[in-house]
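call fold(seq) -> tokens
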Amino acid sequence: MISNNSHFFKTFKTIGWIGLLLLVGSACSNKNLIKPGDTLDVAYKKAKNLYDNQKYSDASDAFETVISIGRGTDIGREAQYLLAESYFKNGEYLLAASEYGRFANLYPRAENRQQADFQQALCYYKLSPSYNLDQSKTRKAIDQFKLYLSRYPDADNAQQVAGYIDDMRAKLARKTYGAADLYMRIDEYEAAAIYYGLTIDQYPETAWAERALVDQIYAYVQYADNSIRSKQAERYQKAIDSYEKYVQLFPQGDHRSQAEDYYDLAKVGLSKAENKSSSSDQLTQSNNNADSDSDSEK
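ret:
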């Protein structure tokens, strides 16, 4: 019986402590809630306290309230910026981008306008998905970062921004290259060659450009192999042209050996196609001559 009573009191004591902690937490939370009658300064301090304590969801709600009552004031300006920061730190990048943009439009001469512009572009960078998904956010981020560099060419983080742009352009190149690969897998060689060409032309500075040019050589070889005889020679020639472009653009390329293998296939194919064409022409000429002789005998 004593043991049971002891267990009961221990359990009751634990529950009591939990309840007390909940009450204290609730009291602290209520303390930071903006109430009717709070001055603008008090409301801002409550919102800022939530932000400083990393309660970003609650802070964003509080800053919304501060903005509604303090628009046009210095506090309203700071609240607008911290609202965007709250969304950003809470991982709500689309909302953050919108609020950074609003801050820039409302306060174009603010000291932290440049940082807001950077953060807005960074939001879209964060929203950029895997290369195989829709890349509208990636393109938006590139545009925003380019705009940032045009506005602030001497920015301390210009090199960092350029790195972000390179990362995203490489992702777009990977997507275009992937489309070409897909066409190769379904034996649509002409379409594959076109998309390899787009990778090269649109993203020449990326690592995907060299790979695309090598694969374009092979795509044209396959295209020629599977073409009617009269079209083979010109399509093997396209493979050879792609190889010559590769040598010009990537004389020390990592894929040079593979490119040369495909080039050899194209040369052999072109030689055979031209020989067949020549034989066919000779046969046609011979038949024409025979018909001519027959007509003259008649």
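DSSP finds twelve helices and no strands in the chain.
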